[in-house]
Amino acid sequence: MDIRVQEAAFDLGAEANAFAARQRGMGAIVTFTGVVRDLDDAPLRHMQVEHYPGMTEKALTKIAADAASRWDLGDILILHRYGRLAPDDLIMMVATASRHRRDAFEAATFLMDFLKSRAPFWKKEETESGSDWVAAKQDDEDALNDWD
Amino acid sequence: MMDVLYFAWVRERIGLPREVIDTDASTVQDLVDELRRREGRYDVAFSDTSALRVALDQELSDFDASLKGVREVAFFPPMTGG
């Protein structure tokens, strides 16, 4: 299990290759990448990502452990950035390795659903007309109930 | 004595990221009520606790939870990771 919370940018190819290279006997590797996207109504200048040092790592470890207990997984990577990001920057990635693709896909979806609403990150969007904290979505909260 | 941390717009409204509070509040809600009586900025930040989340010693908790033995309380809006 590899959990990283960092300010620095990451290289998606290098991370995915390094993750794949350390697996043995895994038939499936799924990776998901989150990208900072422009807003629908105004051009985004920057996104400020704040987190709770200490709790973030604990929460991500718990989410990963929950996934590992539900699916047959060989390995999990969660990498999440904080600080000042620009549109099209990579903000986070998860990777799962499993003997079978269904476990790898489902575990990756589970990790993303819990990361959205249970990991202590907050995003603030800055446009030319001002800045606003991103509100949590009810859809994201509802998605957690589907895993009960 | 308790470390109290604030994140995102709660931090902005209160105007500081953390402080040490000398309190004998027995629950989170008691602590919130005590802070609200202190100054307007706390009153504004905590005016709707349904819009807030609380963590006790870095574990998500509830506003009716006991503060017995707790060293670190954090208040923040619903999380938006991913």
CATH classification, class level of chain A: Alpha Beta
Number of domain units of chain B = 1
Class derived from helix and strand content of chain B: alpha+beta
Please provide the ordered H/E string of secondary-structure elements of chain B.
EHEHHEEE
How large is the radius of gyration of chain B? 12 Å
Looking at the structure, the CATH topology of chain A is Aldehyde Oxidoreductase, domain 3
- Classified in CATH, the superfamily of chain B is Beta-grasp domain
pLDDT < 50 runs, ≥5 residues of chain A: none
Number of helical elements of chain A: 4
User: How big a fraction of the residues of chain A is strand?
Assistant: 35-45%
Q: What is the CATH architecture assignment of chain A?
A: Alpha-Beta Complex
Summary keywords:
heterodimer, A: 148 residues, alpha+beta, Aldehyde Oxidoreductase, domain 3, four-stranded mixed β-sheet, four-stranded antiparallel β-sheet, 4 helices, B: 82 residues, Ubiquitin-like (UB roll), five-stranded mixed β-sheet, 29% helix, globular, Molybdopterin synthase catalytic subunit (chain A), MoaE_sf (chain A)
Write a brief caption for the model.
The complex is a heterodimer of chains A (148) and B (82). Chain A is an alpha+beta fold.
Q: What can you tell me about this protein's structure?
A:
The complex is a heterodimer of chains A (about 150) and B (about 80). With about 150 residues, chain A is an alpha+beta fold. Chain A has one domain: Alpha-Beta Complex (Aldehyde Oxidoreductase, domain 3). Chain A is about 35% helix and about 35% strand. Chain A has helices at about 10-20, 55-70, 100-120, 140-145, and strands at about 1-5, 30-35, 45-50, 75-80, 85, 90-100, 120-125, 130-135. In chain A, the strands form 2 sheets. Chain A has a 4-stranded mixed sheet with strand order 1-4-6-2, sandwiched between helices. In chain A, strands 5-3-7-8 form a 4-stranded antiparallel sheet, with no helix packed on it. In chain A, helix 2 runs antiparallel to helix 3. The longest helix of chain A is centred in the C-terminal third of the chain and has 18 residues, at about 100-120. Chain A is globular, with a radius of gyration of 16 Å. The model of chain A has no long low-confidence stretch (mean pLDDT about 95). With about 80 residues, chain B is α+β, with helices and mostly antiparallel strands. Chain B has one domain (about 1-75): Roll (Ubiquitin-like (UB roll)). Chain B contains 3 helices and 5 strands. Chain B has helices at about 10-15, 30-40, 40-45, and strands spanning about 1-5, 20, 55, 60, 70-75. In chain B, strands 2-1-5-3-4 form a 5-stranded mixed sheet. The chains are: A alpha+beta (about 150), B alpha+beta (about 80).
